[in-house]
Amino acid sequence: MLFGRTTLSKFVIEHTRGQHSDMGALLIDVAAAVKGISALVGKGALSGFSGSAATTNVQGEEQKKIDVLANEAILRHCEWGGQLAGMASEEMDEPCPIPESYPRGRYLLVFDPLDGSSNSDVNVSVGTIFSILQRPQAGDATLADFLRPGAEQVAAGYAIYGPATMLVLSVRTGTHAFTLDRESGNFILTHPDIRVPEATREFAINTSNERFWEPPVQRYVAECKAGKTGVRGADFNMRWIASMVAEVHRILMRGGIFMYPKDSKDPSKPGRLRLLYEANPMAMLIEQAGGAASTGRERILDVAPEALHQRVPVILGSREEVERLERYHQEFDAGTDRPYASPLFAERSLFRD
Ligand SMILES: O=P(O)(O)OC[C@H]1O[C@](O)(COP(=O)(O)O)[C@@H](O)[C@@H]1O
Ligand SMILES: [Mg+2]
Ligand SMILES: [Mg+2]
Hints:
The protein contains eight helices and 16 strands. The protein is of the alpha+beta class. Helix 1 runs antiparallel to helix 2 (about 20-40). The chain starts with 7 loop residues before the first helix and ends in a 19-residue tail after the last helix. One magnesium ion binds next to strand 4.
């Protein structure tokens, strides 16, 4: 029985009263766009939109047809309501102004329309990530308005298109998750006040990049893999879905740590993930749920952006593990770290008595 349960609309109107009352309507428009994307993604191969769009985005990445359609869905659902000063997205080189004929507001919407889109053709979970910033007054946003640290976000969220479609949201009053009831078309509050467990024995990282990582990350992962035989004295499990939304969702539901750290694969890129529309909103959701989010050397939400599509190292999830990784970075930078020794060659090992 769904009557009497809290819908997303009711929740956002109640939680944005006062200073941010006009943001509630914007979030309802974002949710409407998400429902459209969910329907499209849910059709799978039947949509006729699988495969490449034969174009690349500003970052030189191949765009999928579904990336372009998801981008359009968000622009068209959100541009007319009068709450926005501008929008920016992974799929657009420059910020997108609000069309002349529509009223302006003071909010800025920044988004990754389809995260993990390489998974869309193989029917694995993908998502949409968004962040809301504000300028002092209504008007047309400039690029500088978008380049604000994540600590200034007034709202952040993502939608995950998995077996169920869920929308996970923070308006700075905790992190809350809503599940789409496909019959009624409503997002229903199913996971209020999510808390990320402080400790975990599960990590997520793309280990094919291991040789490019910095020593603190190599040390951390080696210690996890050594399990009971190593300094951690406990076995760890590993996951990699190649969809940040799905990894963060698992961490919000049951704990864990997700890493896309700094690597030397392409020296022009300090990390894989984008600060404004991937790292910042996820960092806010994780912090609002009691977890931590760091570059390894500083809190993600304190990073001062210099460019719209700037990349950043990301380490987020259960607090104890994120803090351990920050400690390993500090020790490495200070030259006081203890290089990792493989248990295979330790004093008592497979190769020594
Ligand atoms: O190719 P890799 O190393 O597995 O990268 C996966 C990462 O790239 C991303 O897919 C990037 O997102 P986009 O699909 O929006 O470009 C993240 O979701 C994920 O964490
Ligand atoms: Mg992405
Ligand atoms: Mg994307």
